[in-house]
Amino acid sequence: MAGAFKSDELEPFRRTLQGLRSRLTGDLSQMTDEALRRNSASGSSNLSNVPLHMADVGTENHDQEFTLGLIQNEQGTLELVNEALERMNQGSFGLCVECGEAIARPRLQALPYTKLCIKCARQVENGG
């Protein structure tokens, strides 16, 4: 199965994916550090005998859950980016992993890490 693009056509996609990977890695590192700092700070912030207000505890829990959700989403996207770069190295970038057909260039320009053509993506979204 030949790739959908010539090597010179792949370069803009490669640069975009590498830039995205770099940004996501930095974002993940920063969010993880922030979540760990918040977690360690909340464990030692109540050194006085003043009780914490329940609303403060709820807000802190919500913020932590929100950050963990963002981290999970970013990790998923980073995984897709790494898979796209691997498909590029294998010569299958731009081909749908489900049906093997070429993925439309506008779709790849919008989501360079996509692994499904629009038809297969719709089927997956519809539970099929």
Beta-strand residue fraction: under 5%
What is the mean pLDDT?
A: 85
Distance between the termini: 25 Å
Strand-pairing-aware structural class: mainly alpha
The Cα radius of gyration reads 21 Å
Order of SSEs? HHHH
Shape: elongated
Could you name the ranges where pLDDT drops below 50 across 5 or more consecutive residues? none
How many helices?
4
Q: How many individual β-strands?
A: 0
Question: For the report, how would you describe the main beta sheet?
Answer: none
The percent range for helix content is 55-70%
Notes on the protein architecture:
This protein is an all-alpha fold and 128 residues long. 70% of the residues lie in helices and 0% in strands. The protein has 4 helices and no strands. It is elongated. The two termini are 25 Å apart. The mean pLDDT is 85.
Summarize this, please?
The chain is mainly alpha-helical and 128 residues long.
Task: Give me the secondary-structure topology.
Layout: H1 7-44, H2 54-90, H3 105-110, H4 118-125
Helix pairs in contact: 1-2
What are the defining features of this structure?
single chain, 128 residues, mainly alpha, 4 helices, 70% helix, elongated
